[in-house]
Amino acid sequence: MAAHRLSETARLLAQLVTHHARGQSGWPTSASVSAAAPTLSAPTPAAAAALAKNDAAAPSPWSKLGYMVDGDQVQVLTSPAGFYEQLKANIRNARRHIVLSALYIGPQEHDLIQTIHDSLLTNPSTKCTILIDYLRGTRGASSNSVTALAPLISAFPDRVHIALYHTPELTGWKKRLIPPRFNETIGLLHFKLFATDDQLIISGANLSHDYFTNRQDRYMQIADARVARHYARVVEAVADVSFRVRVAEKKEGEGYELVAPTPYSPVDAPREYKRHAQARLAPALIVESGEVVEKGAKDTLIVPAVQASPLGVYQEHDLMAGVWSGLKQAADAQGEKSDWNVYFTSGYFNMTPATMNTVLGLNRPVHVLTASPQANGFFGSKGVSKYIPDAYTWLESRFLARVRGAAQPIVLAEYARPGWTFHPKGLWISPVTSRLPWLTVIGSSNFGHRSMHRDVEAQAIVVTTNKQLQEKLRDEVNGLWAPSQVVEEKDLEARQVHWLTKVVAYVTQNMF
């Protein structure tokens, strides 16, 4: 049932993307949508009544896909400091709930944790849910995310829920034999969702010092109650099937204990856990329906996309297939008259072969931005991690070799801002002439193999006709590409990646 609904949704999204890619103004009419997707559900009584008034309002034909919002209520944040200050302001202003989810929270982020504490103290009706990854959140015995967050439970035991998602793929001999850090290659929770009452920040950033200072990422704030509620439901659903942090009764050792989810543990009963988790997550993924939109009032569509392959959820894969299909239809219909470019970025550029073939099949200019070795988050690391930037250099060289002689221009650039690292990921589609994006994809996914098959990701596909929002997105693209340098095959070859690094990268490329 769910797979059929998502497939239908992807077809609807493809139709919308084709419409905009062909340069057609406005939004497709309800009639054209009904003709293309006759299985859409009937309007709610409120929507039908609005239709009966003949032009007073109309049910949004896109409510099957996501949420129509006012583009003026979407803010594109551009700096780590701006993101941090906005996040803290949202937490301070929360009156009902604070829902935060990231890979981890830095154990030294006392200022952020104090901000949460003060908000809960000031607003006694506010509840807080924090969801992080089990493996990353417990790394480091004496100082980690859990030790930093546990005092919040001590202070507000009935109002704070701290949960740690554990992949059901790390069990048995893998759990026993694969050491910490290496076991994180099996699968992680990778959300970056921060919902407070009617505000949502969706990002690719974690909650630690470098992400608040000199690690560039992407951040979008959406001031819409339904959107914030949707993503909060997703986080809370995953939290319900995750380990719960409980302050230990005996204050010995770590001072907290991790309580496995019931009725099934992802470690002890992975098969049953997957079925249970999928059933718990499914209702949270459903878009609220029955929306009635005043004519001209809303000009931006937010399409939620969750990818949780270990739990049987493939929204992002299906919806992105809809995006690519829509672009392909437009390219085939218009040929050389097509007037749009693809801008793509990932701090860890490891595009799957399927995605690469799809992008190349569009026959449109593609601009790719990734991290230079010095801007890679693993640059200067200890142990085997120090070879990761070289591995990405090799992956870049394979990409350029693959696209050599392609019909369309493919430009690869590397972010090289002194003293900064690079972590954004996403996609923009914009006309060649105006360069005002009408579609962007933002969130946690790097569009690589592990994003599709190992990790739990959350994205938003944003389609807009709002001129001011399009200008903000254009400025975002310009800002990210400004400190970059175009690289060619000869530049990458000059770095002389060791043959053993190439072999290891080839064998393990599906793990990063």
What does this structure look like?
With 512 residues, this protein is an alpha+beta fold. The protein folds into 2 domains: 2-70 and 293-511, Endonuclease, Chain A; 73-284, Endonuclease, Chain A (2-Layer Sandwich). 38% of the residues lie in helices and 21% in strands. Strands 2, 14, 15, 16, 17, 18, 20, 21, 22 and 23 form a 10-stranded mixed sheet that branches. Strands 3-10-8-7-4-5-6-11-12 form a 9-stranded mixed sheet, sandwiched between helices. Strand 20 and strand 21 (439-443) form a beta hairpin. Helix 5 (110-122) packs parallel to helix 7 (145-155). The chain is globular and about 70 Å long. Residues 1-6 and 34-58 have low confidence and may be disordered.
Q: Helices and strands in order, then pairings?
A:
Layout: H1 2-21, H2 30-36, H3 45-52, E1 57-59, E2 67-69, E3 74-77, H4 80-93, E4 97-101, H5 110-122, E5 127-133, H6 134-137, H7 145-155, E6 160-165, H8 172-177, E7 193-196, E8 199-203, H9 209-213, E9 215-216, E10 219-223, H10 225-240, E11 243-247, E12 256-259, H11 270-281, E13 292-294, E14 300-308, E15 313-314, H12 315-334, E16 341-346, H13 353-360, E17 366-371, H14 388-403, E18 410-415, E19 421-422, E20 425-430, E21 439-443, H15 449-453, E22 456-464, H16 467-481, E23 484-486, H17 489-493, H18 499-508
Parallel strand pairs: 4-5, 5-6, 9-19, 16-17, 17-18
Antiparallel strand pairs: 1-13, 2-14, 3-10, 4-7, 6-11, 7-8, 8-10, 11-12, 14-15, 14-22, 16-20, 18-23, 20-21, 21-22
Helix pairs in contact: 1-12, 4-5, 5-7, 14-18
Poorly predicted ranges (pLDDT <50, ≥5 residues)?
1-6, 34-58
User: The CATH topology of the largest domain, please?
Assistant: Endonuclease, Chain A
CATH superfamily of the largest domain: Endonuclease Chain A
Architecture (CATH level 2) name of the largest domain: 2-Layer Sandwich
Find the count of extended strands (DSSP E, 2+ residues): 23
Taking the sheet with the most strands, its summary is:
10 strands, mixed
Percentage of residues in helical conformation: 25-40%
InterPro entries: PGS1, PLipase_D/transphosphatidylase
Keywords: ATP-binding, Lipid biosynthesis, Lipid metabolism, Mitochondrion, Nucleotide-binding, Phospholipid biosynthesis, Phospholipid metabolism, Repeat, Transferase
Protein name: CDP-diacylglycerol--glycerol-3-phosphate 3-phosphatidyltransferase
Catalytic activity: a CDP-1,2-diacyl-sn-glycerol + sn-glycerol 3-phosphate = a 1,2-diacyl-sn-glycero-3-phospho-(1'-sn-glycero-3'-phosphate) + CMP + H(+)
